[in-house]
Write a structure and sequence with these properties.
Blueprint: H1 3-11, E1 12-17, E2 22-27, H2 36-42, E3 50-56, H3 62-70, E4 73-80, H4 83-94, E5 105-109, H5 116-121, E6 129-134, H6 149-155, H7 161-172, E7 173-183, H8 188-195, E8 199-208, E9 217-224, E10 231-232, E11 236-237, H9 248-254
Parallel strand pairs: 3-4, 3-6, 4-5, 6-7, 8-10, 8-11
Antiparallel strand pairs: 1-2, 7-9, 8-9
Helix pairs in contact: 2-3, 7-8
Domain Methyltransferase small: 39-144
InterPro entries: DNA_methylase_N6_adenine_CS (IPR002052), SAM-dependent_MTases_sf (IPR029063), Small_mtfrase_dom (IPR007848), tRNA_Adenine-N(6)_MTase (IPR050210)
Protein name: Methyltransferase
């Protein structure tokens, strides 16, 4: 093994998702590492989706690639601002195991919080996408204190995050287009407030570790410019029994065999 290969092995991992459908190159220790949250978010995109999708705050691209792997007619833009994570997104797209998906994938280096002309100049044009998804840094600083600046950027919520990120989603998604995010249940008030006059037809899926536990995540889906009311959909229970075995439904979603709506 060359010195360069050794250094890469120590600083990054190449992780297989969807039972071999794609590979994610991501940092070994620093910054954002993706897992079940990203797969659940991807599961909020309906089966058979066709069109342009933006993965906002994509990191190395886990959720976006999961959508591309499950939906063969989807074109996916990975939108990321961190130079550190952009490098991993580029490595992910160049990985040989992603060769079949690569023609339908692209990267936009842009800050999701930009607005107006600045946002459009960065490559996020008005009404340019049929769907947007986001797994934003939704933890409070007291919950995820870390000396790693990249990890803090990926995990810790900034002031006004829901308003700025959802404002961008509403600008770039066409009317009647779709939107989905994953967050902690405590964030629901801020999310719904940011949806006002932007998104309707809201569906909330509570995610429980096990039956009888409190929800640890919510997946929220909505439609741009819809006037339909809010629904609380059937919950997703991740694990069965005392161990860490996924329930049949969670396993299917985690491996790209089903959407949250199947």
């Amino acid at each position: 093994m060359t010195e360069t290969m050794q250094q890469e092995a120590e600083t990054q991992t190449a992780d297989i998702f969807h039972r071999g459908q794609f590979c994610l190159v991501q940092p070994a220790a620093r910054g954002q590492r993706s897992g079940v949250d990203a797969m659940l978010l991807a599961g909020a995109v309906p089966q058979g989706f066709a069109g342009r999708l933006a993965d906002l705050g994509a990191g190395a691209g886990a959720a976006g690639l999961a959508v591309a792997a499950r939906c063969p007619d989807a074109q996916v833009a990975l939108v990321e601002n961190s130079p550190f994570m952009l490098e991993f997104a580029r490595k992910t797209l160049e990985h040989r195991q992603n060769a079949a998906l690569k023609p339908r994938l692209g990267i936009i280096a842009a800050d999701v919080t930009l607005a107006g002309k600045s946002r459009r100049a960065a490559g996020l044009a008005d009404n340019a996408f049929d769907f947007a998804i986001m797994n934003p840094p939704f933890n409070a600083s007291r919950d995820r204190a870390t000396p790693d600046a990249e990890k803090a950027r990926a995990h810790v919520m900034g002031e006004g995050l829901w308003q700025t990120w959802i404002r961008t989603a509403a600008a770039i998604v066409r009317p009647r287009g779709g939107f989905a995010l994953i967050a902690r249940p405590v964030s629901i008030a801020g999310i719904l407030s940011a949806f006002d006059r932007r998104f309707g037809g809201v569906k909330i899926v509570p995610v429980y570790p096990r039956a009888g536990d409190s929800a640890i995540r919510i997946v929220v889906a909505a439609t741009r410019a819809s006037r339909a009311g809010l629904q609380v959909a059937p919950p997703l229970v991740l694990h069965e029994g005392p161990g860490h075995t996924f329930s049949a439904r969670a396993d299917a979603i985690n491996n790209g065999l089903a959407s949250l709506w199947d």
